[in-house]
Amino acid sequence: MGQDNGTSQPSEPSFWRDPRFYQIASLSTLLLYGLLVLHFDISIWQIAITISTAQLMQYAGTRYFHLPCFDPKSALISSLSLCLLLRTNDCAVAALAAGITIGSKFVIRWKDKHIFNPTNLALVVVLASGLGWISPGQWGQVAWFGFLIACLGSLVVTRAARADVTLAFLTFYVGLLFARALWLGDPLTIPLHQIESGALLIFSFFMISDPKTTPDSKTGRIVFALIVALTALYIQFHFFTPNGPLWGLIACSPLVPLLDRLFPGVRYDWSKPTTGYTPAAVPLPLSFQPQRRFS
Amino acid sequence: MNHIVLSLLSAVMSLFLWGTDASAFCGFYIGKADTKLFNKASEVVIARHDNNTVITMANDFKGEVKEFAMVVPVPTVLEQDQIHIGDAAVLKHLADYSAPRLVEYFDENPCVRYELMERRSLDMAKSMAPASASARERDTALGVTVEAQYTVGEYDILILSAKESHGLETWLAENGYKIPHGASAVLHSYLKQDMKFFVAKVNLTEQSKLGFTHLRPIQIAFESPKFMLPIRLGTINADGAQELFIYTLTKQGRVETTNYRTVRLPEAQEVPLYVKDKFGEFYRDLFTQQVKREHERGVFLEYAWDMTWCDPCAANPLSAEELKNLGVFWQERPNVKQRGGTLPQAQNVFLTRLHVRYDTAHFPEDLMFQETSDRNNFQARYILRHAWTGTDECPAATAYRQQLRERYEHEAQTLANLTGWTIGDIRKAMNLASVPETEGKKWYQRLWAN
């Protein structure tokens, strides 16, 4: 989980600068609001099963691959995202999704990175198999706006190193939606309404931004964000399939190794967030050790 | 047959389950809320599987039939055999079957229940119950192409495509279609999205020949990945909000909107007995209240059920033949009669009934749908619970009488909360003042009773 054999443990300040604490706090708050106010179609059991399966899988993976220590944070974020997005009537499907999420992190890898965003992969598998669904319209304005503020706030507070991919994706995606509306002659209330999706926020702030699946360099990430936004809109308006960004990301993820080759950068470490552009700020041996990291 | 068996089953279950929540079984059906309660209501049935879609459209048009005209954006040019006239009676049956309903329960003698409870340990698991040449020239000048022209039933139908919206707007106006001011922008948007326009007027000669006094629903069948309902044209120039009932018939499960919140209406709530006489008014106000609560942006789920049964039934489930009439094309062997000679029942058909009150301000975009794999049943059901009025005496009866007033008050609060009616009026209508006070003992008096 971003720990390095033989290197020092994260110091106190960097420990609290880990953006994942803020992510866990905002996702949990949103889940509570969704349950209590918006009456999300999700049972306490499904939440419990999703979170516990994810943690169990993380623990098993830590032991099996002999990682230095068990870190529940990333698995918790993935499972909270699953709880917010995935709807199913069968707890086994929830467990399966959590299993795929964490399992894929350990198994589907390329040069010490995950190929697919784990949550994204699990959601797409469940959607494609018809075992569950995502209700992107269930958020309402208040929750959406509140969550947007929380997400933007967390970017500022944590000075998240990989905020560029989130901001680039949102800029391209929202910009293209507005451009489409202008081309159609639609009132701008339509694109404003179209972006009012909780799924879009979770996607932008918690999936596409995952440092373990995005290109290492800033240029690579911005190019990646553009390709994902274009694919997402094509899926949405050509195939009329909801959740375009999810399908877009899964389709574009295999391009990341290629983008890494075209625009090389520094590999990310949770305890020492970098933009990938400033190798001098990171002790070199840390970034280029040929060891396996599974967060 | 199936639903009879299930009703029996739930009756048997009720013997074992009283004492648990009343929602565990469904009570006796006594009334429903008609779609006619709402003004300017349109009804649309969408039967869809894969990309094959059949849409049945009906509205409560009340003016002169010669004034009637409808313009519907459609994704493809429709051939004559893709247009059909539906049966209003089947649509009515569907509306009745899925209507919000009122059910009633009668409390049993608590003394008998008390004895039974003593005999039986209630450790069983809780279970959920389950044109001419010149006209053609004009068309060309306006950039409008009449892709097809048919007379189907009492309707004259045209399928139009156009180069630009102003030409289309002018064409429609010149051809007697009243297009509200401001429609041009919306028409423009649909044209850019490569939509065609299905326009219909009543052919008075055909109508008098057929002898129908009302306008029958129009049905169209097409293949398109678009699972949506264009509502934007309906919102222009509409005075006030429009009421729309959408019934979807699908194979897999419940349908919901992907770009608006789909909200379940409050259900299984116990309301005062006097609601029985004014259920229509109750439901209309309840709906308005819920619309307000969702800031006028919600799409409301009124019914979601597998077509094979219902409990309680506001009307019998639709037969396979009726469903075929509404566009359900995927049923296997719909003509095979079932055991006992009953009408063949629907297979693999899941009904979702959505109710939306919309206007431009709150519904800027067309309704987009998705089919989910959720097959959980849902019905907007409201409960009347008649109190036991017997004179038997036993500890259970005393306890029962003590909690009655509290229960009535709770019902009054529920009603006020659901409908926005004034609590004082409700209490008066319930005649709560005449209900004897709880045998006078405070909780602490009961705690330290000698």
Unreliable stretches of chain B (pLDDT < 50, length at least 5) are 1-26, 121-131, 336-342
CATH architecture descriptor name of chain A: Orthogonal Bundle
Low-confidence stretches of chain A: 1-13, 277-295
Strand order within the widest sheet of chain A? 1-4
Class computed from helices, strands and strand pairing of chain A: mainly alpha
Overall tally of structural domains of chain A: 1
Largest interface: A-B, 32 and 31 residues
Shape of chain B: elongated
Mean pLDDT of chain A: 80
| Beginning-to-end CA distance, first to last residue of chain A | 4 Å
Mean pLDDT of chain B: 79
Strand content of chain B: 25-35%
CATH C-level name of chain A: Mainly Alpha
How many runs of DSSP E, i.e. beta strands of chain A?
4
Question: What kind of sheet is the major sheet of chain A?
Answer: 2 strands, antiparallel
Task: Write a compact overview of the structure shown.
The complex is a heterodimer of chains A (295) and B (450). Chain A has helices at residues 12-17, 19-36, 44-64, 73-85, 91-107, 118-129, 140-158, 163-184, 189-194, 198-207, 218-238, 244-252, 256-262, 284-288, and strands at 86-87, 109-110, 113-114, 133-134.
Please characterize this protein's 3D structure.
- The complex is a heterodimer of chains A (295) and B (450).
- Chain A has one domain (12-288): Ammonium transporter fold (Orthogonal Bundle).
- Chain A has 14 helices and four strands.
- Chain A has helices at residues 12-17, 19-36, 44-64, 73-85, 91-107, 118-129, 140-158, 163-184, 189-194, 198-207, 218-238, 244-252, 256-262, 284-288; strands spanning 86-87, 109-110, 113-114, 133-134.
- The longest helix of chain A is centred in the middle third of the chain and has 22 residues, at 163-184.
- Residues 1-13 and 277-295 of chain A have low confidence and may be disordered.
- With 450 residues, chain B is α+β, with helices and mostly antiparallel strands.
- Chain B has a domain at 2-67 and 81-126 and 217-386.
- Chain B has helices at 2-17, 88-97, 110-119, 133-142, 165-174, 183-192, 204-210, 232-235, 279-293, 320-325, 395-419, 423-430, 443-447, and strands at 28-32, 41-49, 52-59, 69-74, 83-85, 101-106, 144-152, 155-162, 196-202, 218-223, 228-229, 242-250, 255-257, 261-264, 269-270, 298-306, 350-358, 367-371, 378-379, 381-386.
- In chain B, helix 11 (395-419) crosses helix 12.
- The longest helix of chain B is centred in the C-terminal third of the chain and has 25 residues, at 395-419.
- Chain B is elongated.
- Mean pLDDT of chain B is 79; it is low at 1-26, 121-131 and 336-342.
- The interface between A and B is medium-sized, with 32 and 31 residues.
